[in-house]
Amino acid sequence: MYSFSEMIRASAGFYLNDFSYKKENLFFPALNTEFNTLFITAGFNIDFQGFTVDLALADSHIFSGKFTKRTILKLAAGVQL
Fold first, then answer.
1. Is the pLDDT assigned to residue 23 strictly greater than 70?
2. Would the pLDDT of 10 be above 70?
3. Is residue 20's pLDDT more than 70?
4. 12 secondary structure, DSSP code
5. Which of 11, 16, 22 is nearest to 68 (CA)?
6. DSSP character string of the chain
7. Chain-wide mean pLDDT for the chain?
8. Sheet arrangement for strand 8-17
9. CA distance 34 to 18
10. Is the predicted pLDDT of residue 34 greater than 90, yes or no?
11. S-S: 37 plus which of 5, 44, 50, 68, CB 3.0-4.6 Å?
């Protein structure tokens, strides 16, 4: 996590979802790798006077199998009492 200031922080990373069957798939061997996914992630966190806003993005369009291309966006807000 990188801090721009006390209020603003950013992060980047990756997440690997390694999907495999327990038994060898003889009829459709390509399915053993087409569900694997590598997400590239980025996020921001802003803290201001007890309020927190988080924004995170994960995308798998570059490094993923044929059936698992997706983008995930998360927005969260909180307050510290």
1. no
2. yes
3. no
4. E
5. 16
6. -EESSSSEEEEEEEEEE----SS--SS-TTHHHHT-EEEEEEEEEEEETTEEEEEEEEEEEEEE-TT---EEEEEEEEE--
7. 85
8. 2-3, 8-17, 37-48, 51-64, 71-79
9. 10
10. no
11. 68
The domain locations on the chain are: 2-79
Pairing state between β 71-79 and 8-17 = unpaired
Half-sphere exposure of 66 (CA within 13 A, CB side): 5
Residue for token pair 């807000």 = 77
Residue 36: CB atoms within 10 Å? 17
- What is the reported pLDDT for 37? 86
Q: Which helix (H) or strand (E) holds 71?
A: strand 71-79
* 43, 76, 58, 38 alpha-carbon torsion, rounded to 10°: 100
Q: How many whole angstroms separate alpha carbon 29 and alpha carbon 35?
A: 12
Q: How far apart are CA 55 and CA 51, in angstroms?
A: 14
